[in-house]
Amino acid sequence: MKRAATALARPARAQGLKLLALLLTVLGAGLSVPPLRALIEQSMVWHMLVQMPLLVAAGACAALAWPVATGAGLARWNRYGLTGFMLAQCITAYWMIPALVDRAVVLPGADAAKVLTLWLAGAALRQAWVQAPLAVQLFFLGYGLPMLAWLGFYLASTNLRLCNAYSLESQLRTGQGLVALTVVLGLAWAWSLRRQLAPPAPAAGTQRAAVDVG
Questions:
Q1: How many C-beta atoms surround the C-beta of residue 68 within 10 A?
Q2: Quick one: which of 62, 64, 39, 34 has its CA closest to 49?
Q3: Cis before 200? omega within 30
């Protein structure tokens, strides 16, 4: 009965992940289309703390729902998750540059590239996470999270207006939000680490044998 229930739950879970990936993709990309585009044009918070994380999360959910990179052919190009981590980190670092954020606001082509590449970064990050040992995870998080925190502190503390498209007040709130996002991501990784290090649950047959022996 338990195995049957598990078998029935898997298709439902996969369908839920696909719907979630589609929803996040529509929400993230929808912020680049009128009338929602006004939100990212007027607020740096909506642009960097809402739309960009939504796109990365959408790509990650899509990779979880359709795990194409688990095949042996593609896995060779992502050994230990190194390729995926490097790709995701390069893309996210690129779109953290204030001048490029400005370009995404004023140029539709740059904005479309932002949507596509950040979605791809999320998919690459998910596949890298699956294949990466803890040492590789720690290496990339140890580089990426401090970089994100530094950018947040800088945006929140400087008196220079770094993005022409946004006010200094919007930049300040974005910097504070990036610091908070860094803390949330660090805690999420700590929770994931606890799960990865937890001992596997004993099989049902093993439990029965232990009871019989006792």
A1: 10
A2: 39
A3: no
pLDDT tens digit sequence for 103-139: 999 999 999 999 999 999 999 999 898 888 888 988 8
Query: What are the C-alpha distances in Å from 114 to residues 12, 55, 106, 194?
Result: 32, 9, 12, 33
**Residue 26: half-sphere exposure toward Cβ, Cα within 13 Å:** 6
Tell me the pLDDT tens digit for each residue of 147-195: 999 999 999 999 999 999 999 999 999 999 999 999 999 998 888 777 6
Other CB atoms within 10 Å distance of the CB of residue 181: 17
| C-alpha dist (Å) from residue 22 to 10, 30, 31, 88 | 18, 12, 14, 20
- Contact (Cβ atoms closer than 8 angstroms) between residue 31 and residue 105: no
43-69 pLDDT tens trace: 999 999 999 999 999 999 998 888 754
The residue with tokens 């898997």 is 10
Q: How far apart are CA 35 and CA 52, in angstroms?
A: 18
